[in-house]
């Protein structure tokens, strides 16, 4: 879509101070997807040259300008570190309701900052305890968890002119057992409900966490010091998912989305526990990767 109010596109390295009407430009797939009245100048991040991915002992740092295709290529590298974590990251990448053409342009940071409930990079970052590094227009830095950063449908806690620099996924989170369950109205369509479950395996720590996205206006996570029973999980999610938190749009009614979230969470719980349900613990709904576990 043409942004008819934009008057100039400037290099972020030399753009000077932040002005009203400015916006950061990375991949642009979200920025150009709808009218942006009042937008006057785009500050292009392409020239900053941030390494897309940096793997180290502490974990994986994903630059905001890293494309989905670059992240997927890393996740599917058979010789890379954290096989469980990379398998989970790959499944999140493939949860996009878009073409490979978009994957080569859309960025991880853009998907997070757009803050759409169905954003799979939000799911990935929240489920893997992602820490976001934020930079203010004057160069100061602060950090926030991905779960804190995304606070509503299309809403984040970014201040005016603040930039998401990168997201770090801790090594410990990348080593967890993971399960992903997803439902959409179409096999490759937008997610109507997406539930992830992760479990620690260290003897001194056995935290199990369930994260609900796509069905809710913001990410919701419930955590347990030990694997929960079906009743405990359901009770916790019923309390954490009040009707007002469920998304209501053309892709699904809130009551339906809440039901799906509870159903998918129970499937994920059974898979982590090594149990099987009536359909073997796998959803029959429109999930292109029904196994979804690592």
From TrEMBL:
InterPro entries referenced in this protein's UniProt entry, alphabetically:
Diverse_Substr_Oxidored, FAD-bd_PCMH, FAD-bd_PCMH-like_sf, FAD-bd_PCMH_sub2, Mopterin_DH_FAD-bd
Q: Matching Pfam families, A to Z?
A: FAD_binding_5 (PF00941)
Note the superkingdom of the native organism: Bacteria
Q: Where is this region: Disordered?
A: 271-294
- Residues in FAD-binding PCMH-type domain copies: 1-174
Entry-linked PANTHER family = XANTHINE DEHYDROGENASE FAD-BINDING SUBUNIT XDHB-RELATED, XANTHINE DEHYDROGENASE SUBUNIT C-RELATED
Q: What is this protein called?
A: FAD binding domain-containing protein
């Amino acid at each position: 879509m043409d942004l008819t109010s934009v008057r100039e596109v400037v290099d972020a390295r030399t753009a000077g101070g932040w002005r009203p009407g400015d916006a950061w430009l990375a991949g642009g797939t979200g920025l150009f997807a709808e009218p942006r009245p009042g937008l006057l100048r785009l500050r292009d991040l392409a020239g900053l040259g941030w390494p897309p991915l940096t793997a180290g002992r502490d974990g994986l740092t994903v630059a905001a300008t890293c494309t989905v295709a670059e992240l997927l290529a890393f996740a599917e590298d058979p010789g890379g570190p954290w096989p469980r974590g990379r398998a989970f990251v790959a499944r999140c990448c493939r949860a996009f309701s878009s073409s490979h053409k978009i994957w080569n342009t859309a960025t991880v940071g853009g998907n997070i900052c757009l803050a759409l409930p169905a954003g799979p990079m939000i799911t990935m970052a929240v489920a893997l305890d992602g820490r976001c590094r934020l930079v203010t227009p004057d160069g100061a830095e602060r950090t926030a968890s991905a779960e804190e950063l995304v606070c509503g449908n299309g809403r984040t806690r970014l201040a005016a002119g603040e930039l998401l620099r990168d997201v770090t996924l801790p090594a410990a989170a990348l080593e967890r057992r993971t399960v992903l369950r997803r439902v959409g109205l179409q096999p490759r369509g937008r997610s109507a409900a997406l539930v992830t479950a992760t479990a620690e395996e260290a003897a001194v720590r056995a935290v199990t966490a369930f994260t609900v996205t796509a069905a809710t206006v913001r990410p919701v996570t419930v955590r347990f010091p030990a694997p929960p029973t079906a009743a405990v999980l359901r009770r916790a999610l019923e309390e954490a998912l009040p009707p007002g938190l469920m998304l209501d749009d053309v892709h699904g009614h809130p009551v339906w989305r809440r039901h799906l979230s509870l159903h998918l969470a129970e499937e994920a719980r059974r898979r982590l526990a090594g149990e099987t349900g009536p359909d073997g613990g796998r959803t029959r709904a429109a999930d292109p990767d029904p196994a979804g576990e690592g």
